[in-house]
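job 3f2a | input accepted
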Amino acid sequence: MDNINNISQENISEDLKMDGQVTEPGKDNNPSSDGKKKMKKEKKVNDHIILRLIKEAKKIRAGILLGALLAVLVIACNMAAPRLVSIIVEEMNKFYLLRQSGGVVGSLIASVADILIITFVVYASKGVLQYLKMLVMNFTVSRHFTCAIRIQMSDKIKNLPVSYVDKTQPGLLLSRMTEDVSTMGNTIHNIFDTLMLGVIQVIGVSVMMFIVNWELAIVVIAIVPLSIFLAIMISKRSEKHFEKLHAKIEKMYTCVEETYSGYATIKAYNVEEAREKQAREINKEIFESEKKGITISSMVGPLITLTNSIAYVLICLIGGYLAVQGSITLGGVVAIILYSKQFAAPLEQISEGIASMQRVKAASRRVYQMLDQEELKEISGDMPAEIQGNVKFDKVCFSYSPEKTLIEDLDIEIKKGQKVAIVGPTGAGKTTIVNLLMRFYDIQKGTISIDGVDISKVSRESVRDLFSMVLQDTWLFKGTIFENVAYAKDGATREEVVTACDSAYADHFIRTFPKGYDTEIDEGTSNLSGGQKQLITIARAFLSERSLLILDEATSNVDTRTEILIQKAMDKLMKNKTAFVIAHRLSTIVNSDLILVIDNGSIVEIGTHKSLLEKNGFYAEIYNSQYAN
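job 3f2a | predicted structure (629 res):
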């Protein structure tokens, strides 16, 4: 079982890569050789997925065992029922033969009453047990199985680096946590029923048929290997279509998410028809993939039914002949016919289970690909309780990708209480510095220290607890204004929230609402202006009362009057705090203690607003381009 636990991301995701092969010197590039290697690799991946699903199912083994017990009792009822019916037929046959021969005949009802009652009890018990098994598997097994995986995925996301979430479309994550996990959960108990319990029933029915008549039993069983072989071969051909189906569903989730999040932009540019066309095309692709997958997998059931029908006809013909010859009783023929029907049912279920297995493997691969992503390494240790706010970048190097170096040998030293402005053209690396400070990304070389403590040696949470942030994109959730501001501090009182809002110059407009601080913010925040939303996020920063402050384009989406209010609030907020201000509007940072001018990840100039203008360098060029007459 250790091998199951050690399945790597490569094993699960390898078959999701492109089919293109890289030709290398000295390697066998024979297409047939590559094909064989690919088939072996795919088989290995599939085996890993099945083993991993078994491992996941161990968590719900109590429910599975209970379901198995109920299923075995159902099978026992299935085994007993045909035998009981054959006894009834035999009794009825004897009754009419005796009556025709003039023998003493009693009541037919009396002769079969006891066995009729037993048969009724068996069939009724079977129905009750099947219902209980369905409840156990549906409400216990499936629910706990899917719930556990979704919790596992949610926990995984919390431990993944920010880079993974940045590079992954929201629609993809939603699709895997909803569609793929539902497919796994809805299928797991069907596979259990059809593959495990179906095999038990096939064995049990086979034994009972041999007990009744071995010749007819061989007729039924002879067709099984051919049926199973054909079912497996056909169902395997459907797997690639289900893979494509799940990929297309991810595209649809992404399309829907983008459409609703960018609703106003879509309306403004009158591109509703284009978006609708895109959705229709993706939906058509989903339809085609699902149609092909289901069409192929659906061939298995009719094929099994056909072979079992052939067996059924042969039983009737051969059984009738043997009954005439006296080799088997009429009741025995009836029993074999009923058993053959029971033999057919699990075979059809097994074929469906094999087809479902292809679908669940396709979904599982995508889920496990995410679960196998490398997590952030946990680092113990916390920043000191009392922080002054001295920050130092010492020969820091960083890049988002190995192909392009963004920041190289960055050296900055910021003293406590300084207001540091970071300016430069788009893509120069301004926001990257903030990402490194907050440890959203880790540097490749050098050190970043706060009050002499290397932030890479302590937990990310303790570093982030030092910062308040006000970003260009305001983030408010559905709830009251009070709840949105209080989000910054656990257990915040109403008085503290009102004080923070007053400091942020937000109290006045909040009180103009009929419900004041209890005003509900809707999901689209359409009942607030851009400036009002920004002031609420600034109030959060006041409430958090942290030693370091980050302002990333905080005034870019507001009008001039609101910008003046924000600037006044910022001056108050930044008092005695180390503040990093990223801004395109240079008018907002002219009073900074230090201005860092960044271009291509390197600091090209450093100084105050006045000294940088006197240098008449890169900063002066940017400033004059904004404010020159």
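job 3f2a | Confidence is low (pLDDT under 50) at residues 1-32.
job 3f2a | closed
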